[in-house]
Automatic annotation (TrEMBL):
Upper taxonomic lineage: Bacteria, Pseudomonadati, Planctomycetota, Planctomycetia, Planctomycetales
Top-level taxon: Bacteria
Broad enzyme group: hydrolase
Ranges in coiled-coil conformation: none
Pfam family, one: RMMBL
Domain Beta-Casp, chain residue ranges per copy: 252-377
Ranges for domain Metallo-beta-lactamase: 13-232
Record GO terms (molecular function): hydrolase activity; RNA endonuclease activity
SMART domains with a match to the protein in the record: Beta-Casp, Lactamase_B
Protein name, as recorded: Ribonuclease
Alphabetically ordered keywords of this record: Hydrolase
Enzyme Commission identifier(s): 3.1.-.-
Amino acid sequence: MKITFLGAAGEVTGSQHLIETDQRRILLDCGLFQGHRAESYRKNSHFACQPESLDAVFLSHGHMDHCGNIPRLYNQGFRGPVFCTSATADIAEIMLKDSARIQDEDARYLARKLHDKHPPIEPLYDEEDVRRVMKQFERLDYHEWHELGDDLKVRLLDAGHILGSAIIEMKIKDQGEWRHLVFTGDLGRRDLPLLRDPEPIEGCEILISESTYGNRVHEKASDIKEELHQILDEAYRVEGRVIIPAFSLGRTQQIIYYLNDLYNENRLPHMPIFVDSPLSTRLVSVYRHHLQDMDQDVSEVMQEDKDPFGFSLLDYVSTRQQSIELNKREGAFVVIAGSGMCENGRIRHHLKNGLEHVENTVVLMGYQAENTLGRRLQQRDPKVKIFDRYYHVKAKVVQLSGLSGHADVEDFKWWYETSAKRGNIGQVFLVHGEPESAAALAALIRDECDEEPIIPQYKQSFEV
């Protein structure tokens, strides 16, 4: 069996791994490369996996760096099934349609800005490609072994990363011999709101494992609700706005769930809360539809509260005009809007109108990448540029970092030790991590594996 790493190898973007046997060509994930525009476009435009010859894609979850290039794969000739959980299929459809829309808008914008001799920037795919490839999606339940031919059996376990995320366990026959391969996708954390804990495996011959935070320990998620309560209490007292930039998938739903908890406990200050993100609103509907895939806490909440994503103080904003009206609003209120690093979307308008008022608070949730507006706010720059104008940062800026959906050192240690006790772990390939993180995880798990962990590079192949 041959494995070729065509993305998320030595980096944390563009997840794509090709499995080849004497009978099958299978792709694990097909994510978008994200980064410098020209390099990302080149990588995303051209596939090294020969799309028309692929038998199937197995999709771990609905984040864009894992599913975002599947319509391009279809566009380039792929016609096989895409296997994933039901929740992942619903999330992917929403995320991919949004991606197609953004690409179209970006192409139009660049066409106006580029000089005549510059070749046009074409979208990787359009909404019609999304619509067509979604017909190829096949939904698999967790925990059942699915026989997909006389040479392939697949089981999905809960990865605990986002709603619908899966560890893909595969028994595949090559040259008459059964091989046991596992792909973690993005491994989640224990004790996150809404999500079940990642499930250990029962050993395997070959393990492809993410390593994003193999050298980091996260703050505890359990503190976030109390910190939010204190922030809202203070804002209510001084009649200020609380502006929360949050990613539309995962983070926004976790925040709403915490606020719903505070409301049910009669501890939420009587101030309106607005979710100003059409994408988040569409994704909340998916969460409502898949409550059975969430953790025991959600089941217990639902005995008293049938909708953990709705309460009387919460309003989902849909139109642009409603969003504009929020910036004219007086008194204390909360607005949650995308994007999480403040780089685009409606959040920039709320920051523009709110940063220069001392009574307001900006709550940053999670990692802020270099050279983003979120990072400049996080490092307390005295003024920041938004829409070609500088604004003085007089609002309080608070960082809450306990909701990362990726396993940290302690989670990895628990998962590998528990899995190894249930069965031998053979050859491990560490992907989806910067070199330092992957190297740290390799050292951490060495004693749990039969072979020295390998950190593959982009387009590197291995016979296993």
